[in-house]
Amino acid sequence: MNVRNCKKCGKMFNYMGGPPICQACKEAAEKKFQEVKDFVRQNKTATMKEIVEACEVEQRQVEQWIREERLVFAQDSPIQLSCETCGTRIATGRYCEKCKKDQANTFSAAGRQPEAAPKAADKKDAGPKMYTFHK
Ligand SMILES: [Zn+2]
Ligand SMILES: [Zn+2]
């Protein structure tokens, strides 16, 4: 049996994999998520600060839900998320649909070792664009 201390409340619990958080804290987080989700849906123009204050939730936790694509923001929300690769406005997550697709293609292409066939390399394979976007 794998016993650990919960990262949130410090209580010992039977660790089953995933984040080291006990069942009670997991359920509390899930309840909080529903609360935040409802709040965001009803208050489409709420800022991050308003969400954190109204729902009594940590901003870090909200950001995690965004990265997990669980929280989706309206077009007119002041919380403007942009694709980490191309900067396009997105509603949730970290990348736009196009970049997600590109990444999937890149990963499958990497498995085929493209450098082994230099003649086939054309402009299309000029390598990843090294743009950095600052928030
Ligand atoms: Zn706990
Ligand atoms: Zn993108």
User: N- to C-terminal separation?
Assistant: 44 Å
Q: What would you call the quaternary organization?
A: single chain
Number of strand elements: 4
Strand neighbour order, sheet with most strands? 1-2
What are the distinct ligands in this entry?
A: zinc ion
Strand content: 5-15%
Model description:
By secondary structure, the chain is mostly helical. Among the domains are: 25-78; 80-110 and 131-135, no CATH class. Helix content is 38%, strand content 7%. It has helices at 23-42, 48-55, 59-67, 97-110, and strands spanning 3-5, 12-14, 81-82, 89-90. A two-stranded antiparallel ribbon has the order 1-2. Strands 3-4 form a two-stranded antiparallel ribbon. It is flat. It starts with a strand and ends in a 25-residue tail after the last helix. The mean pLDDT is 86. Residues 83, 85-86, 88, 95-96, 98-99 line the site of one zinc ion.
Task: Tell me briefly what this model is.
The chain has helices at residues 23-42, 48-55, 59-67, 97-110; strands at 3-5, 12-14, 81-82, 89-90. The chain is mainly α and 135 residues long.
Keywords:
mainly alpha, 135 residues, two-stranded antiparallel ribbon, 4 helices, flat, binds zinc ion
Walk me through the topology.
Elements: E1 3-5, E2 12-14, H1 23-42, H2 48-55, H3 59-67, E3 81-82, E4 89-90, H4 97-110
Antiparallel strand pairs: 1-2, 3-4
Residues 6, 8-9, 11, 21-22, 24-25 line the site of one zinc ion (ZN).
